[in-house]
């Protein structure tokens, strides 16, 4: 019998997958247009939502990991770190890591 907690965790995993898909799409767009600042906001929001929802549903490891990714993206938003292929590649790897952690 599934508990309410199990249902919440399943709902989080489904929501996280949607956010990860959007995040990956935005990262690939950013790779093609690194000066498109609106994409940075979209990427940051996706990571922020994954982090916040993860903490709310008890995925503390995901919340801690995405907090670190979010901190780097905040530096990108403020102009302290430029958008680069390496940054995009590492963020795509972070998406894969989040997916694995959610499983």
Verbal overview:
The chain is mainly α and 103 residues long. It is 83% helix and 0% strand. The protein contains 4 helices and no strands. Helix 1 (4-32) packs antiparallel against helix 4 (85-102) and helix 2 (37-56) runs antiparallel to helix 3 (60-77). The radius of gyration is 14 Å and the shape is elongated. It starts with a helix and ends with a helix.
Distance between the termini: 20 Å
Work out the helix count.
4
Give the integer mean of the pLDDT values. 93
What sequence of helices (H) and strands (E) makes up the elements? HHHH
Major beta sheet summary: none
- Uncertain stretches: none
| Rg | 14 Å
Q: Approximately what portion of the residues adopt beta-strand conformation?
A: under 5%
Overall geometric form: elongated
Proportion of residues in helical segments: over 70%
Q: What structural category characterises the helix and strand content?
A: mainly alpha
Total E-strand runs: 0
